[in-house]
Amino acid sequence: MKDSFWFPIVFMLIMVIFFAGILAVMYRTSESKIQDYQIDTYQRTVLKTLAAKISEASGQSRAEILANYPMSYERYVQELFLDGFERRVFQAIVAGEVVAYCFEIKGNGLWGTMQALVSTSTDFRTILVFDIVDQKETPGLGARIQEEWFLQQFYNRLFVSNPESPTDVTQNYEFIAETQSPETDQQLRRITGATITSDSVLKMLKHELNYIYNNMRTKEL
Length: 221
Description:
By secondary structure, the protein is an alpha+beta fold.
């Protein structure tokens, strides 16, 4: 048998089935843990985008709110399910009053889709905090959109500046070099070597904020 033509083929098939079985068992036993970790990470990011406004309304420090997860998430954050609204949306409630909203948004980067969370004021016009939760851009270049300095450019920014516009309610912005300092509120620093990805982030925000504002302002919440 060992000298036959079929022995190495059968042996390899047995080994493939054996190790594939081990991998399948390992995946199944860890699947629930992976899902729990993903949910936990996502909820922590939602809380992060809302924490400053919760802190302002509750008197607790932002650090304390984040440190007390998941209790602070369960106490202050509630997911909304709205008919006809095609985004995940959360609201932060303090003492029975809504103080901010958080939306899941998506867009296209250079190499694939991007997923982000953006919190807004209750009139949906001001971005409070912006965080990229998933992207497929080039490490060291486009992937730098997750760096804090880039994201913070959008914090506490009045983004919906033309609320009556039938086409684009958002402010127009221009990118300048990463090494430059903005001279106006309409200038943002682009990531060096990642022009398309930087533009894609702004395009995503403008498209999604148009959708959010035009749909949410007419809903009874």
